[in-house]
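Good morning N.,

You mentioned wanting to compare the apo and holo forms, so I went ahead and generated the holo version with cobalamin. This is what I fed in:
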Amino acid sequence: MKILLILSHWRTRNTFLNKFVVTSSYPTLTLEQLVSVTPDHYEVDYVDERWQTVDVNWDGDLVGISTLTLSANHAYEIADEFRRRGKTVVLGGYHPSAVPEEAKQHADAVVIGEAEISWPRLLADYEHHELKPFYRSDPVDPAAIPSPKRLPEFRTSDGIVQATRGCPYRCKFCAVQNVEGAMFRTRPVEKVIEEIKSLQRTRFLFADSSLTINSTYTKQLFQEMAGLNVHFSCYGNIDVLNKDEELLKLAHEAGCEQWLIGFESVNQETLKFIGKKTNKVEDYAIAVKKIKGYGMTIMGLFMFGFDTDTNDVFDSTLEAVYKMDLERAGFAIVTPYPGTPLFDELEKEGRILTRDWSQYNLRNVVFQPKNMSVEELRDGRESVAKEYYSFSNCLRRGFQDENISIDRLVNRIVYDYFINRFYRI
Ligand code: B12
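and this is what came out, ligand included:
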């Protein structure tokens, strides 16, 4: 039996380049993990739509398509096309897991949540002509998660590792619950280390929601990583990064270059509104200073448009970001992804403005904001991003680090300015 696995990706018109481009060339583990959990006796083809084109005349039996919300419309089109040609189609990933009934209209079966148990089960049912409409499993035992199959033809395939699954925090806006759930699970350290050692490249991202949820585990992992001569970025929360200097020291020694931190807001009332219990605004500046003190940089992530935000949120955020002197920052418009408490709440209040999922890209306003107009929110975010990534600001940030080498300096200015203009961060 022949299976085709597709990582769907939607192309957008980039205003900077004035042409259609893939929205990102960042690494993802999705396809790699799906290939690895597909039993060996099946013949598997795969397509990452960022680098390849789907051939709808593909000659095989079953097509599995993965989609996030942003690319869902496009994924449905491919699914419909394959079904018209008599193929059996399965949809999975964040969006189908959040709205399985919607996804089912375009597929023969939908996998809700993780694939490790459901996917082999589904394939066996298919072979016995007993395919069911929906598959869902208990949270997967982390020790039973196989290492992803690296796909050498994709240059990003070696750039990502996942040590844990799940997040207990349940922030109102976060979609992670739809797949990984609230049960936090850690993979055996030796397995993760083995995986890191086998990577062809020495720079990667941890796909984990947060590596500060269980700092005892993370410290053990970082200790084992010291000496491997790797460099990585990872997500973490401010409550732990603010306090745990041992973790910061071990992170630096393990090769951590950058912490990605969801600050989300500089207003405590907003943090309470979104249920982000890990964040205290008063801790921000102290944590940032400590992280920098251990030689690591920070990418701060912020969101605009919560019900507690008023028109002054743009200036106050920018001011705080400058004060904290973050090396990088991402500014997003609050986006209620389906399956999140935020989506349900806004829908109940009749404030969801569109279900055109291709608009759910963190740059468009897809709901009616409470204290400002749609235009004010969209333009406010855009002006913050433009100001923060103006050429002069990129230059200033680059020259701030006295110890930076000239090649790293040029690299950083180019990265900050062009890459961020390109992605319209
Ligand atoms: C790396 C990453 C990226 C990468 C690559 C994503 C990609 N797939 O193209 C980049 C940087 C490009 C990215 C971009 C975006 N991302 Co992102 N990203 C992640 C991150 C951190 C890790 C993804 C990963 O590799 N996970 C590990 C793999 C193994 O898990 P998985 O993909 O969920 O797959 C498992 C199951 O879902 C299932 N499964 C998945 N697909 C299928 C298909 C079939 C057929 C079956 C059977 C099973 C199945 O099986 C897998 C194994 O169990 C996640 C958070 C997270 N922890 O997952 C956010 C996350 C997926 N991203 C998110 C978002 C919002 C975005 C953006 C919209 C942000 C933006 N700036 O615009 C874009 C959208 C890009 C797009 N293509 O549409 C949201 C998803 C929300 C949603 N409902 O869509 C997440 C959950 C973050 C969050 N906390 O909200 N992202």
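The mean pLDDT is 92.

Happy to go through it together on a call whenever suits you.

Best,
F.
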